[in-house]
């Protein structure tokens, strides 16, 4: 586990998703040392030796300055079935949810690096059964355990803000409803931020749901907690030969999401979410091999881009584009997503497959705009002809609508157009130097989530 956490720290991740009780890969829910999680499959009699291992993992993460998004249970333990149609005992019930959450919250009351998520890949109303009361009792149990306060799920209280908590939905349905906001209302005072599971269907336009949640009132942060995972099968039930998500699928979901207004994003890999030790027809790599797959490294490229500008000021800005006028239903691989900081000093436009776009520069401040082509595949900047550059490829003095064409175009040829107010003096996008050449870098890490991993 130390190897894994150190690897993720090196790549710029800040949050690790962990499930305390997850039967998907092992119905006995055993630790690496073989300790069962529960005595007699009862959440009210937890095996302390199992949870001592979880203690160690959370502590290791804290020592590396990593947060842990902790799910007390996976949804299968609540609804009693898996995605292959098998049935199981419902171990977590409305009668024991509060007590289990209370125990878990008390155990980790002193931890300063925990964020919480309920749900575990299941809608709160599953196969016609309403489990919302169970999840609400679990939220109240966590509040009592972590905060020592008797909070009610539907009663606003400032103390709820001291317990960062969300809900992890599923992505199934027709049409798929995969946001926290699709199932919970403003009455649920326990929800601090909204989570999506845009899932593993490659045709989902996740930026639409991010935009929808971003504009909701009251305002809450939103992030995609389970998008396309690298080398995850892209069809379920599985079809053969297996088709999987490549690094491009991973990148585009991340850039769409962050530029559309999300506070962070999840990276996942098919071999890592279940820590695969063996390969098979659906598992191309062991978890150790998968840690350094291209998509994982490209999250470091994304993090470097975020760190090179004051990301905490970024807001969606599709009005800079002329493309949305031509973006009908089904526009996916040609989508462009734009954002700009609140002070108008820089803007980013993501071209999913490259191409040409007219950009309205009147939204930006400054008399001169510097333009850069940033490559999300390698983190380098290029000229319009594809030559490496360490300076802007253009300086533009006219604040008007300007046409830009990416250095390359076509499937998997994504690019980010970076536009800067020249007077501010930003360094090259993704540069390891200060995000300002003339001023001290602003610290934003306490204000936002950066790309996450499960």
From TrEMBL:
Occurrences of domain Putative collagen-binding (ranges): 334-420
Location of the region described as Disordered in the Swiss-Prot/TrEMBL record: 428-454
Upper classification of the organism: Bacteria, Bacillati, Bacillota, Bacilli, Bacillales
Alphabetized Gene3D superfamilies for the sequence: Glycosidases
Source organism per UniProt: Paenibacillus phyllosphaerae
Apiosidase-like catalytic domain: residues covered: 2-311
InterPro entries: Apiosidase-like_cat_dom, Collagen-bd_put, GH
Name of the protein in its database record: DUF4038 domain-containing protein
Coiled coil: none
Pfam families assigned to the protein according to its UniProt record, in alphabetical order: Apiosidase, Collagen_bind_2
Taxonomy, superkingdom: Bacteria
